[in-house]
Amino acid sequence: MPDLPDTASLRNVAIIAHVDHGKTSLVDQLLKQSGNFRDGELEKLEGGQHGLIMDSNPLERERGITILSKNCAVDYVGQDEAKYRINIIDTPGHADFGGEVERVLRMADGCLLVVDAYEGPMPQTRFVLTKALEYKLRPVVVVNKCDRPDGDPDRVSGEVFDLLAALGADDETLDFPIVYASARDGWAVEEWPTEDYTSGTMRPVFEAIVKHVPHPDVYLEKPLQFQVTTLAYSEYVGRIGIGRIQQGVVKAGQPIAVVRQHDDESAPKVSKAKIVTLQGFAGLAREDRTHIAAGDLCAISGIADLEIGDTICDPNYPEPMERVTIDEPTISMIFRINDSPFAGEEGEFVTSRQIRARLERELEHNVARRVEQGRGADEFVVSGRGILHLGILLETMRREGFELSVGRPIVIVKEIDGVLSEPVEELVIDCPEGAVGSVMQLVGERRGELRKMEPRGDGMTHCVFEITSRALIGLRGRVLTASQGEAIMHHTFEKFEPVSGDRPERIAGVMIATEKGQVTGHAVENLHDRGFLFISPGTKVYAGQVVGEHNRDSDIPVNICRTKQLNNIRSANKEATVTLKAARSMSLEQAIEYIEDDELVELTPKSIRLRKRILDEGARRRSERMSKDKANA
Parallel, antiparallel, or unpaired for β 70-77 and 83-90? Predict the structure, then answer.
């Protein structure tokens, strides 16, 4: 066997942060300044609104957020002239994708905690730091965006210390190293304030990694054992299992044992298999290897039914590792077939069998989601971490050619010590000073409690609330409206508390189309006084479709396809120019938050429509009467 690599020169580091604190930008700069790529090689891979490299998924580039965790590897020569190999694991920063963070932290030996020099620690910062401490990972703090004129790195460093102390970190962890950086401009320094940073590089970040992130503490002589934490797929070799080798050495063509043990099973299931291809990480790609030793990351193929959490072992020592534990979902939604009059016109996959197969395929690589059978054969209950978490799945299915309809998000409650409890979240809102009163009123109406409020630079106010997950549904749009689009809102799960109060409901009613046809300008003009519309003239609609919001609290049926009566009588205002108001367009997440219990969001590859669950007006009224009679009985 060839000489095995020295694990003392290996570093496995995870990059963790709150959303939009510059985590992926930092990874991109580390890649660019690593010296491992030719000139212009990485620039060809840049894309999206921020020109990022690691965010390669189309949805990530459109939305400007990291959705999937990814890893890469670079070689680095330190100031001590020693050669190091650094495996970098990039993780999502949004709370809804926390399952990705939990899943991959087991592969790391340390972490870079990236914090915005202005915002400081935010809700997701607390979440990822909690998970990192659970895995005994000591953070290296990178205060990013130090070039911001309103940044305050010294204040942020103190807030990170306070957060670690509140999480119960030991004295050694509290003595964390700090690097001050601007990932966008590509510089980092070890001391702040500093005058000469314009000519700096990211070398202080590399040095902090090799000095403060420990090398893997593993045993090469023990039998092989490693756990699959990520799944990829290739049309040529099928499923690819990615993970970190905990002990031993894995070789290409080696016979192995796959040990699988679910929580509800007493004895693990063991199956024999053979590694067809073995790959290690080099830069952004994977390359074939003959063997990989403990402590390093690898990708294997040749196992047909591989799952996340499976343990790959020596056939003579089939010992399972503890399965990856993921926090429970907090939101569920009904996914069902699209049974509208326009069903099948735009999509390719429309049957319940196709939807079920797609959801089952999703569970293979996304362990934070749950799928259960609904009340009928055409319904499925899909659970996740939040509306964005489920919205990304729906958007992906739309782009794959699926048609389906989904119901209103429902917060998952559970019984704790005989008491029905619901999730409570920490809500952080940064808003202009002039909008503080409106924002506090909106949150107060939903029983949110103010924990902290402090001024920040440039006329912004930082508010921290405690609020139930139920009350958060539909709040984001109203906060943005109250602050004229300037507010920044983040939240993350904190705890469970006994259920109290009713769910906030939509104040306004809706306008419902009464017939199938094409929207006319004449009908739109006459409906402007009743509220605002979601559709424009020329759009095709059907009976039961929600076409606008009523300016009162009741639903009204409208004939939005009505044409202007043509006769031979001269009109007094014949030459008058009519200006129609623009229709209000909704994103997928906004539409999901908007609907009520008796409504659905219809999704097709080309359209997002709102509709009533019962399309026929007479049947809908009978159902409403029956519900009222049942409630009064």
Answer: antiparallel
Model pLDDT for residues 84-126, shown as the tens digit of each residue = 999 999 888 777 887 788 888 888 999 999 999 988 898 888 8
Residue ranges of the chain with per-residue pLDDT less than 50: 1-4
Instruction: Tell whether the torsion through CA atoms of 273, 278, 281 and 284 is positive or negative.
Output: negative
492 bridge partner residues: 426
Dist CA 470 CA 423 (whole Å): 8
Q: If you ran DSSP here, which 8-state letter would residue 535 be given? A: S
* Residue closest to 280 by CA, chosen among 239, 235, 245, 313: 245
Q: Specify the pairing of strand 540-541 against strand 517-518.
A: antiparallel
Q: What is the pTM for the complete model shown?
A: 0.85
Pairing label, strands 139-144, 178-182: parallel
Helix boundaries (H) for 117-174: 123-134, 153-166, 171-174
DSSP 348-408: SB-SHHHHHHHHHHHHHH-TT-EEEE-SSTTEEEEEESSHHHHHHHHHHHHHTTB-EEE--
Region at 280 (left for phi over 0; alpha for psi -120 to 50; beta for the rest): beta
Residue 121: cis peptide before it, omega within 30 degrees of 0: no
Q: Rounded to whole angstroms, how far apart are CA atoms 47 and 122?
A: 27
Give the model confidence (pLDDT) of 536-561 as tens digits: 999 999 999 999 999 998 899 999 99
Whole-angstrom distance, CA of residue 291 vs CA of residue 250 = 6
What is the DSSP track for 239-305? EEEEEEEEESEEETT-EEEEEE--TT-SS-EEEEEE--EEEEEEBTEEEE-SEEETTSEEEEE--TT
Whole-Å CA distances, 432 to 117, 289, 454, 459, 504: 19, 55, 12, 6, 25
Instruction: Check: CB of residue 483 under 8 Å from CB of residue 433.
Output: no
